């Protein structure tokens, strides 16, 4: 039997992920040691309340409320507390004491990433965070290592399982957003306060992490354009399916060229129409997937569980094995690279295509008026579909034929967001347009 040197592992937090990490460390210690070339000795688990109920039965003597002593005696600190404080202070303490850190804390990385990376680099320590984006799915390491020799053009992901679950039920079962959200809450996908998920904050945090890694550029959270799913209606989802699309909440990080021809990047989160033939359209339920377009590698797709205690523990343990191996073998490890330092461009610089639904007067010349407004802003029409609304719809009898209305669905070619915004503003105030009922971006076409 091989005798391995032990590395001391301190675990901070015993929630759904932390308790599974501890269980797997204890149950699979020999295997993990064989892979790491080091014994992984769990020296303790720091918790706030020693008597709290736990998901997993672990030896009681492992628990402590003295996080600082645990951190100072560790070679590797695994932070699974979540939130900003005290997680930030604990991670800085760990790095400053020379320990490597494994974390799954997306909120902290999204808001304080540069500070933590700088602290790690200063002391030659490593910060691993595979679990911070898309749970069990390996996406951080592929972007950070496997694709380090390539040029990433675009990262487009379904990175929030709760919203994918809701939109999928609206699409496949015809449920309303509120009903689907209630089920997501019952099943434990959505929190009691679902704001972070349904308003896109969670996905925006993940987008800032992915964009910074993919483009070797620090992309601040404040620069991520964010729209949630609360404005998505059953009618939009139904119309989308009829037109060959499915509505998904996407996090999109892409390389752009601005109006001056300079390279830049953008990151955005919003609902979008995805063609039914695109691989992301086949991501159902609470699953996550990240679609990467790279210059040399072409298209790549990473799919799987984006949350869950034991699933996310897999990502944490992968990082832990790497950290333990480096601890024994040594070497500089990886530093976060922001060498490209590209301009982070505003949403107005983004270019995509759109589906615009309008309720218009059904009179001669309306189509020409609407087309003229689009043309005036350089937005080119690709498709137009008109449905005449029966005069006696919804119990309303329109005596005057001039009051007849029609629904126009206009598909555009690619246009800048800034041009589209001006187009929609003009359509909204145009007399023959009763209302702009829906504007959705089309992605992946
Ligand atoms: N709340 C997230 C989701 C999981 O629904 O995907 C944690 O990132």
Automatic annotation (TrEMBL):
NCBIfam families: PRK06349.1 (NF004976)
Organism of origin: Frondihabitans peucedani
Top EC category: oxidoreductase
Cofactor (UniProt): a metal cation
SUPFAM superfamilies: ACT-like (SSF55021), Glyceraldehyde-3-phosphate dehydrogenase-like, C-terminal domain (SSF55347), NAD(P)-binding Rossmann-fold domains (SSF51735)
TM ranges: none
Function text: Catalyzes the conversion of L-aspartate-beta-semialdehyde (L-Asa) to L-homoserine (L-Hse), the third step in the biosynthesis of threonine and methionine from aspartate.
EC numbers: 1.1.1.3
Name under which the protein is recorded: Homoserine dehydrogenase
Classification via InterPro entries: ACT-like_dom_sf, ACT_dom, Asp/hSer_DH_NAD-bd, HDH, HDH_cat, HDH_CS, NAD(P)-bd_dom_sf
Domain ACT: 355-438
Gene3D superfamilies: 3.30.70.260, Dihydrodipicolinate Reductase, domain 2, NAD(P)-binding Rossmann-like Domain
Reaction(s) catalysed by this chain's protein: L-homoserine + NAD(+) = L-aspartate 4-semialdehyde + NADH + H(+); L-homoserine + NADP(+) = L-aspartate 4-semialdehyde + NADPH + H(+)
Keywords assigned by UniProt, alphabetized: Amino-acid biosynthesis, Methionine biosynthesis, NADP, Oxidoreductase, Sodium, Threonine biosynthesis
Family under the similarity heading: Belongs to the homoserine dehydrogenase family.
Pfam families registered for this protein in UniProt: ACT (PF01842), Homoserine_dh (PF00742), NAD_binding_3 (PF03447)
Pathway as given in its UniProt record: Amino-acid biosynthesis; L-threonine biosynthesis; L-threonine from L-aspartate: step 3/5; Amino-acid biosynthesis; L-methionine biosynthesis via de novo pathway; L-homoserine from L-aspartate: step 3/3
